[in-house]
Amino acid sequence: MFLSAKIGKGYVVTCAMISAMLIVVILCFLAANSWQAFSQVGLGLFGWTWNPPKGQFGMLPMIYGSLAVTVIALGIAFPLGIATAVFTSEMLSATVRVYAKSFLELLAGIPSIVYGLMGVAFLSVFVQDVFVLLSGRTILTGGILLSIMILPTVITLCDDAMHHIPMSYREAARGLGLYKYEVVKDVVLPAAKMDILGALLLALGRVLGETMAVMLVIGSLDKIPTPFWNVLAPGQTITSKLGREMAEAAFGSLHFEAMIAMALILLFFVLTLTVVSLTYFYNPEGRLYE
Amino acid sequence: MRVWTLLILCSILGIGCSKREAVMVSGSSTVLPIVSKAADRFRMQHTDMNVVVNAGGSGVGIKQVGEGKIDIGMASRALTPLEHEKYRAVHLNVRTLALDAVVPAVSSEVYDAGVKHLTLAQIGQIYKGEIDNWKEVGGPDREILVIDKEKARGTRHVFMALVLGDKEAEAPGADLVLGSNNEEQTAIVQSNAAIGMLSHAWLNAGVKGLAIDVNGNVIQPTRENIENGTFPITRGLFVITRGEPVGVTKLFVDYLLGAEGQTIVEASGYVSVR
Amino acid sequence: MNRRLWNMFFVLGVWLAVAMCGVGLVSLIGVIAWYGVGAINLDFLLTGSQNFGADGGIFYQILGSVLLIVGAGVICFPLALGTAIFKSEYLANAKMQRLCAVLVYGLNGVPSIVFGIFGLVFFVNILDTGISWFVGSVILAMMILPTVVLASFQAMNSIPVIFRESAYALGLNKWQVIVRVLVPQSIGGTVTGLLLGLARAVGETAPIMFVATAFSGVSTPGSLLEPVTALPTHILALAQQATDVHALQNGWGASFVLICLVMMLGALGLMSRLQLKGAR
User: Which of residues 15-54 of A touch C (CB under 8 A)?
Assistant: First the structure.
């Protein structure tokens, strides 16, 4: 009897150690395998050109692409998402809201590769026709595709944020004779502000790390467009670069290490986001969305 | 729930007992259709053996066979001196499986509008960005969508060595960078002003191959011209093993190079070496 | 300005947004269902793929996807359960709780492609395991671990104190309380978390494309160390030839089947969650 308690404790401690150390192990291995790149290429990693055969490993085009895609995706998804969440949370009856939310959960479960297929088959052709472009594989296409992809999650999270606000707030505001618009603007949104910000951070992390959908539609050109706000040009994100080129680099070569360095930088970005959101928006009862 | 998991696990372990000998193949997406079709037939004839085929590009194939991660590498270009040097110790055995041409391929709209052949110099200028409208080479007044390939792709090595004089040349005129032949073919079909580099076997109604103008002689990318080597961008497709192949690997290589394998080569749109 | 006018603008704006989202998202599902159902028949589900996936079916892709997540589930379940028990029952220190949360949430935030790259570096290159079913399952298990740990932890944490107190009063020691009372009471939460995690894992491409899947020639893997083939990577190959009518059609079919798998797992998860609520 006593022995089983000891074994049991050993088991749970081991499990906990493994789980806790996983992230540390990932970080260490990525760091160890990109060390050469950092020490030999150094600041050259933040150059403008990426051309491994000539020893050029500038990642600025990829970093730019990731940021551009993120700004576009969030810029589209958040206004739309918040407005739709106002609708589901403030205007829909409780029964319909449940159906709407299940539908959204269903949509949030669609794998990203399916969005990629849609992007190649429809969206890139659509963008090409609408903007009369040479090719529909552009940064904008990637951004739009990602915005559609995170929209269900954004709506769900914003809806939760608003719905958690006690009914009495709204009733009091209505009692003062405020219009719906004023109730939402002056009461609901300010009260839900923190949770909506948390949703923003979560969506940000997800967009930055998304690979498959972007990789298929962005054009994979390692170049910052000129002028730089011309998002109708092809580009490259960190993730699409990794997805396309990782398998081509020989293990241990400078090229391989530079790719790992890029993955490490991406991971660093995302982990910072996680720590920030834990510090400011930690909700011990919260569910883990993707 | 746990009972279910246990049941599934047991059935998997049951499967695990019937182990087959497997040959791992990886590399060029140009060679892939031949090998994957051949593998399908090979498996039907030898049910106790398995051939697993993966894509990734010639560079990947050579690298992995050199490192011993796979049994057979597929390549659509010869080994570079650097690769020779690197894998000298393991003695890579390279066999020619088929002949192929890398053809400058354009959207059918461009072809129908009158661009039927270009000189290598013109293609070079297009990839350098010095020519960026089809009207400069006798086509419609439309900007050119220049499609480049990922740097480790064999097709790109062969193409760039002839067109720009350096297999790893930069192509500043490129608008898109894509990977496999399939992906490139898709992009060319989706556009009405694209040029790309494709294996002869990928040409179809939506993707037309251009003839190449060599000192006034217009050479079409036809079977004959590939076979006798007059088409300028002709290449071999190779299968690579570490040393002499043995066992199942030898069986499969022999199958590829034998009568049946070469029939598949022809059926896939390439030129047989026999 | 007129308040009523502002309000009208606001309502109009909201309706506009809803219309856009609604049309967009409903047509999304519509398109997949329309093309997907059209592509599916019994042959498609029960034969292997041929000719780059443009011909034939997706039987082995379905099998491979199922094998990958079964493996992931088998690896993840004990690990997550143990971690949750430790976090809930042994870890009293608030600071350590917090550190633990940071590490678990941190793992949850790791982009899926980074898992794939870690697998490539650690398993395929350093441990030299080769591209295999086993590595794919381990990587997917790592990816869903935070979800399962958290669901399990919350279920365990919400067991009323009275349960524990009564169990101790009967003279059970800590481990006996855990095994006899806490685990049976919270197992539903773990299973729910696991199913929801697997629903996510089954659709992932980036973590497995370097470490677990091969392009063709994979039927039933003969052992854990052989590569498999999976639905998401198959769709990736098909998406790259999207102008080929047959390939695209098979792509929609495979997408539809994949979404059905995700939904099935999700629905099972939901059912176990509801059952859990019913039991209380």
Answer: 15-16, 18-20, 22-26, 29-30, 33
Which range of residues forms the domain containing residue A70? 33-281
Residue C121 in any domain: the answer is yes
Number of domains in chain A: 1
Bridge partners (DSSP) of residue B25 are B53, B72
CB contact under 8 A, C14 and A205: no
| Mean pLDDT within B162-184 | 88
Ranges of residues in chain C with a pLDDT under 50 are: 280
pTM (2 d.p.): 0.90
In a domain? residue C72: yes
In a domain, C32, yes or no: no
Distance CA B176, CA C115 (A): 27
Residues 113-152 of A with CB under 8 A from C: 113-114, 116-118, 120-122, 148, 151-152
Q: What stretches of chain C show up as alpha helix (H) in DSSP?
A: 3-39, 42-46, 59-85, 94-109, 112-119, 133-157, 161-169, 174-177, 183-201, 206-209, 231-239, 245-279
Bridge pairing between strands B72-75 and B234-242:
antiparallel
- Tell me which chains share at least 3 CB pairs under 8 Å with chain C: A, B
Q: What own/partner pairs with CB < 8 Å and gap ≥ 24 does A147-150 have?
A: A147/A72, A147/A73, A147/A74, A147/A75, A147/A76, A147/A77, A147/A80, A148/A77, A148/A115, A148/C24, A148/C25, A148/C28, A149/A73, A149/A110, A149/A112, A149/A115, A149/A210, A149/A213, A150/A73, A150/A74, A150/A77, A150/A203, A150/A206, A150/A207
Domain range for C247 is 38-279
**What residues does B53 pair with on adjacent strands?**
B25, C216
Please indicate, yes or no, if residue A15 is contained in any of the structural domains.
no
DSSP per-residue letters across A243-259 = HHHGGGSPTTSHHHHHH
Q: Residues A192-210: pLDDT tens digits?
A: 988 899 889 989 999 999 9
pLDDT digits (tens, 9 = 90+) for A29-76: 999 999 989 998 888 889 888 888 888 899 999 999 999 999 999 999
**For residue C48, is it within any domain?**
yes
Backbone angles phi, psi at A221, to 5 degrees: -100, 120
CB A82 within 8 A of CB A158: yes
Structure-block tokens of residue A144:
């739009």
Q: Is the dihedral of CA C254, C255, C257, C258 positive or negative?
A: positive
In one-letter notation, the amino acid at residue C67 is: L
Residues of A in contact with B80 (CB under 8 A): none
C14–A84 CB contact, under 8 Å: yes
Best CA proximity match to A12, nearest among C87, B71, C184, B70 = C87
Contact A79, C17 (CB under 8 A): yes
Query: Which subunits count as partners of chain A given 3+ CB pairs below 8 Å?
Result: B, C
Secondary structure of B198-254 as H, E, C letters: EEHHHCCCCEEECEEEECCEEECCCHHHHHCCCCCCEEEEEEEEECCCCHHHHHHHH
Among residues B69, B43, B37, the alpha carbon closest in space to that of B56 is found at: B69
pLDDT band at residue A290 using 50, 70 and 90 as cut-offs = very low
Residue A24 domain-assigned (yes or no): no
Can you give the CATH number for the domain in which C108 is found?
1.10.3720.10
How many structural domains compose chain C? 1
Which element (helix H / strand E) includes A155? helix A139-163
Residue A6 lies in a domain: no
A290 domain-assigned: no
- Chain A residues with CB under 8 Å of C86 CB are 12-13, 15-16
- The 10s digit of each residue's pLDDT in C190-213 is 999 999 999 999 999 999 998 888
A151 and C242: CB-CB below 8 Å? Answer: no
**Could you tell me if A177 lies within 8 Å of chain C, comparing CB atoms?**
no
Q: Inform me whether the C-beta atom of residue B50 falls under 8 Å from chain C C-beta atoms.
A: yes
